[in-house]
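Morning - 6-O-phosphono-beta-D-glucopyranose inputs below, output right after.
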Amino acid sequence: MAKIDTLIFDLDGVIVDTAVFHYQAWKKIADQLGIPFTLIDNERLKGVSRVVSFDILLSLGDVKMTEADKVSYREQKNDWFVELITQMKPEDTLPGVREFISANKALGRKIVLGSASKNALMVLGNIQLKDAFDAIMDGNTISVAKPDPEVFLKGASAVNSDAESCVVFEDAVAGVQAAKNGGMYCIGIGEPDVLGEADWVVPDIGSIDLNEFESKISSL
Ligand code: BG6
Ligand code: MG
Protein backbone atom coordinates (compact mmCIF):
# COMPACT_ATOMS: atom_id res chain seq x y z
CA MET A 1 0.00 0.00 0.00
CA ALA A 2 1.41 3.41 -1.00
CA LYS A 3 1.19 6.45 1.20
CA ILE A 4 0.09 9.45 -0.88
CA ASP A 5 2.57 12.26 -0.26
CA THR A 6 2.17 14.42 -3.38
CA LEU A 7 -0.73 16.08 -5.18
CA ILE A 8 -0.16 17.13 -8.81
CA PHE A 9 -2.56 19.69 -10.26
CA ASP A 10 -3.21 20.55 -13.86
CA LEU A 11 -3.82 24.30 -14.22
CA ASP A 12 -6.30 25.20 -16.98
CA GLY A 13 -9.77 23.94 -16.02
CA VAL A 14 -8.66 22.64 -12.60
CA ILE A 15 -7.23 25.60 -10.65
CA VAL A 16 -8.64 28.33 -12.88
CA ASP A 17 -11.37 28.52 -15.50
CA THR A 18 -8.93 29.32 -18.31
CA ALA A 19 -9.97 26.28 -20.37
CA VAL A 20 -12.78 28.48 -21.63
CA PHE A 21 -10.29 31.24 -22.60
CA HIS A 22 -8.31 28.72 -24.68
CA TYR A 23 -11.57 27.72 -26.40
CA GLN A 24 -12.58 31.33 -27.08
CA ALA A 25 -9.19 32.18 -28.60
CA TRP A 26 -9.10 29.03 -30.78
CA LYS A 27 -12.71 29.67 -31.83
CA LYS A 28 -11.72 33.09 -33.24
CA ILE A 29 -8.94 31.43 -35.26
CA ALA A 30 -11.34 28.69 -36.43
CA ASP A 31 -13.86 31.31 -37.56
CA GLN A 32 -11.15 33.18 -39.51
CA LEU A 33 -10.23 29.96 -41.29
CA GLY A 34 -13.83 28.83 -41.82
CA ILE A 35 -13.33 25.70 -39.70
CA PRO A 36 -16.39 24.42 -37.81
CA PHE A 37 -15.30 24.10 -34.17
CA THR A 38 -17.59 23.10 -31.30
CA LEU A 39 -17.17 22.63 -27.56
CA ILE A 40 -17.19 18.88 -28.21
CA ASP A 41 -14.29 19.25 -30.69
CA ASN A 42 -12.54 21.37 -28.04
CA GLU A 43 -12.25 18.40 -25.66
CA ARG A 44 -9.48 17.09 -27.96
CA LEU A 45 -7.49 20.32 -27.57
CA LYS A 46 -7.61 20.33 -23.77
CA GLY A 47 -4.37 19.38 -22.07
CA VAL A 48 -2.29 19.17 -25.23
CA SER A 49 0.36 21.66 -26.34
CA ARG A 50 -0.37 24.76 -28.43
CA VAL A 51 1.34 23.20 -31.45
CA VAL A 52 -0.67 19.97 -31.24
CA SER A 53 -3.88 21.91 -30.51
CA PHE A 54 -3.56 23.91 -33.73
CA ASP A 55 -2.77 20.81 -35.78
CA ILE A 56 -5.95 19.17 -34.43
CA LEU A 57 -7.94 22.32 -35.28
CA LEU A 58 -6.57 22.34 -38.84
CA SER A 59 -7.38 18.65 -39.25
CA LEU A 60 -11.01 19.35 -38.27
CA GLY A 61 -11.33 21.57 -41.34
CA ASP A 62 -8.89 19.57 -43.47
CA VAL A 63 -6.92 22.82 -43.86
CA LYS A 64 -3.24 22.75 -44.87
CA MET A 65 -0.81 25.67 -44.49
CA THR A 66 2.89 26.45 -44.39
CA GLU A 67 4.85 26.20 -41.15
CA ALA A 68 5.37 29.97 -41.19
CA ASP A 69 1.61 30.59 -41.36
CA LYS A 70 1.05 28.07 -38.55
CA VAL A 71 3.51 29.99 -36.36
CA SER A 72 1.71 33.25 -36.99
CA TYR A 73 -1.80 31.83 -36.25
CA ARG A 74 -0.47 30.24 -33.03
CA GLU A 75 1.01 33.61 -32.01
CA GLN A 76 -2.29 35.34 -32.71
CA LYS A 77 -4.16 32.79 -30.60
CA ASN A 78 -1.68 33.20 -27.76
CA ASP A 79 -1.93 37.02 -27.89
CA TRP A 80 -5.71 36.77 -27.47
CA PHE A 81 -5.30 34.24 -24.65
CA VAL A 82 -2.71 36.39 -22.84
CA GLU A 83 -5.04 39.41 -23.10
CA LEU A 84 -7.65 37.40 -21.19
CA ILE A 85 -5.30 36.08 -18.49
CA THR A 86 -3.65 39.43 -17.74
CA GLN A 87 -6.96 40.52 -16.17
CA MET A 88 -6.95 37.57 -13.72
CA LYS A 89 -6.98 38.13 -9.96
CA PRO A 90 -6.76 35.88 -6.85
CA GLU A 91 -10.58 35.70 -6.75
CA ASP A 92 -10.49 33.96 -10.16
CA THR A 93 -9.11 30.83 -8.49
CA LEU A 94 -11.84 28.20 -8.78
CA PRO A 95 -13.93 27.71 -5.61
CA GLY A 96 -12.40 25.46 -2.97
CA VAL A 97 -8.97 25.16 -4.61
CA ARG A 98 -7.04 27.30 -2.10
CA GLU A 99 -8.71 25.58 0.84
CA PHE A 100 -8.05 22.11 -0.58
CA ILE A 101 -4.38 22.92 -1.20
CA SER A 102 -3.96 24.43 2.29
CA ALA A 103 -5.58 21.44 3.98
CA ASN A 104 -3.24 19.06 2.17
CA LYS A 105 -0.15 21.18 2.83
CA ALA A 106 -1.06 21.10 6.51
CA LEU A 107 -0.91 17.29 6.30
CA GLY A 108 2.66 17.56 4.94
CA ARG A 109 1.81 16.70 1.34
CA LYS A 110 3.79 18.25 -1.51
CA ILE A 111 1.90 20.39 -4.02
CA VAL A 112 3.05 20.23 -7.66
CA LEU A 113 1.88 21.82 -10.91
CA GLY A 114 1.73 19.64 -14.03
CA SER A 115 0.54 21.82 -16.90
CA ALA A 116 1.15 21.92 -20.66
CA SER A 117 0.83 25.71 -20.71
CA LYS A 118 3.71 28.06 -21.43
CA ASN A 119 1.67 30.76 -19.67
CA ALA A 120 1.35 28.86 -16.37
CA LEU A 121 3.68 31.12 -14.37
CA MET A 122 1.84 34.23 -15.51
CA VAL A 123 -1.51 32.75 -14.44
CA LEU A 124 -0.18 31.57 -11.06
CA GLY A 125 1.43 34.98 -10.52
CA ASN A 126 -1.79 36.83 -11.30
CA ILE A 127 -3.89 34.70 -8.97
CA GLN A 128 -1.08 34.85 -6.37
CA LEU A 129 -0.82 31.10 -5.91
CA LYS A 130 2.73 30.45 -7.12
CA ASP A 131 4.20 30.16 -3.62
CA ALA A 132 1.84 27.31 -2.73
CA PHE A 133 3.73 25.01 -5.12
CA ASP A 134 6.76 22.93 -4.16
CA ALA A 135 7.53 22.30 -7.84
CA ILE A 136 6.18 23.66 -11.12
CA MET A 137 6.27 21.70 -14.37
CA ASP A 138 4.83 23.53 -17.38
CA GLY A 139 5.05 23.87 -21.14
CA ASN A 140 8.52 25.38 -20.79
CA THR A 141 10.00 22.53 -18.78
CA ILE A 142 8.68 19.50 -20.65
CA SER A 143 9.41 18.13 -24.10
CA VAL A 144 6.54 15.72 -24.80
CA ALA A 145 2.84 16.63 -24.62
CA LYS A 146 0.19 14.78 -22.59
CA PRO A 147 -0.92 11.93 -22.91
CA ASP A 148 2.78 11.22 -22.42
CA PRO A 149 3.34 11.10 -18.64
CA GLU A 150 6.57 13.16 -18.72
CA VAL A 151 5.09 16.26 -17.04
CA PHE A 152 3.75 14.27 -14.08
CA LEU A 153 6.79 11.99 -13.69
CA LYS A 154 9.12 15.01 -13.70
CA GLY A 155 6.84 16.69 -11.17
CA ALA A 156 6.97 13.68 -8.87
CA SER A 157 10.71 13.39 -9.12
CA ALA A 158 11.19 17.14 -8.45
CA VAL A 159 9.76 16.57 -4.96
CA ASN A 160 11.47 13.19 -4.50
CA SER A 161 8.24 11.26 -4.81
CA ASP A 162 7.26 8.34 -7.02
CA ALA A 163 4.27 7.59 -9.23
CA GLU A 164 2.42 5.43 -6.76
CA SER A 165 2.60 8.11 -4.07
CA CYS A 166 0.97 10.78 -6.27
CA VAL A 167 -2.58 11.86 -7.01
CA VAL A 168 -3.20 13.84 -10.22
CA PHE A 169 -6.11 16.26 -10.74
CA GLU A 170 -7.03 16.66 -14.42
CA ASP A 171 -9.89 18.04 -16.53
CA ALA A 172 -8.61 16.82 -19.93
CA VAL A 173 -8.88 13.39 -21.54
CA ALA A 174 -5.20 13.64 -22.61
CA GLY A 175 -4.26 14.60 -19.04
CA VAL A 176 -6.12 11.69 -17.46
CA GLN A 177 -4.39 9.38 -19.93
CA ALA A 178 -1.01 10.94 -19.05
CA ALA A 179 -1.59 10.28 -15.35
CA LYS A 180 -2.67 6.69 -15.96
CA ASN A 181 0.23 6.15 -18.39
CA GLY A 182 2.52 7.30 -15.57
CA GLY A 183 0.96 4.83 -13.11
CA MET A 184 -0.70 7.50 -10.96
CA TYR A 185 -4.11 7.68 -9.27
CA CYS A 186 -6.15 10.26 -11.17
CA ILE A 187 -9.10 12.37 -10.11
CA GLY A 188 -10.98 13.68 -13.14
CA ILE A 189 -12.44 17.17 -12.85
CA GLY A 190 -15.53 17.35 -15.03
CA GLU A 191 -17.98 14.90 -16.55
CA PRO A 192 -17.78 11.12 -15.98
CA ASP A 193 -18.90 10.58 -19.61
CA VAL A 194 -15.82 12.43 -20.87
CA LEU A 195 -13.26 11.42 -18.22
CA GLY A 196 -14.20 7.75 -17.87
CA GLU A 197 -10.56 6.64 -17.66
CA ALA A 198 -10.04 8.52 -14.37
CA ASP A 199 -10.18 6.63 -11.06
CA TRP A 200 -12.72 9.03 -9.57
CA VAL A 201 -14.55 11.90 -11.29
CA VAL A 202 -15.84 14.99 -9.45
CA PRO A 203 -17.38 18.16 -10.92
CA ASP A 204 -14.74 20.44 -9.34
CA ILE A 205 -12.16 20.56 -6.55
CA GLY A 206 -14.58 22.49 -4.32
CA SER A 207 -16.97 19.56 -4.27
CA ILE A 208 -14.38 17.08 -2.94
CA ASP A 209 -15.30 15.99 0.57
CA LEU A 210 -12.03 15.81 2.51
CA ASN A 211 -13.07 12.71 4.49
CA GLU A 212 -14.08 10.89 1.30
CA PHE A 213 -10.79 11.92 -0.32
CA GLU A 214 -8.78 10.58 2.66
CA SER A 215 -10.73 7.36 2.61
CA LYS A 216 -10.18 6.84 -1.16
CA ILE A 217 -6.44 7.50 -1.02
CA SER A 218 -5.84 5.51 2.15
CA SER A 219 -6.96 2.35 0.38
CA LEU A 220 -4.49 2.72 -2.52
C1 BG6 B 1 -3.07 23.32 -21.44
C2 BG6 B 1 -4.45 23.56 -22.03
O1 BG6 B 1 -3.11 23.53 -20.07
O2 BG6 B 1 -2.12 24.20 -22.03
C3 BG6 B 1 -4.39 23.44 -23.55
O3 BG6 B 1 -5.36 22.62 -21.50
C4 BG6 B 1 -3.35 24.38 -24.10
O4 BG6 B 1 -5.67 23.71 -24.05
C5 BG6 B 1 -2.00 24.07 -23.44
O5 BG6 B 1 -3.23 24.20 -25.50
C6 BG6 B 1 -0.89 25.00 -23.92
O6 BG6 B 1 -1.11 26.27 -23.39
P1 BG6 B 1 -0.37 27.59 -23.86
O7 BG6 B 1 -0.81 28.58 -22.81
O8 BG6 B 1 1.10 27.32 -23.79
O9 BG6 B 1 -0.84 27.90 -25.23
MG1 MG C 1 -6.61 21.34 -18.10
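Note: The pocket of magnesium ion (ligand 2) is lined by residues 10, 12-14, 19, 46-47, 171-172, 175 (CB under 6 Å).

O.
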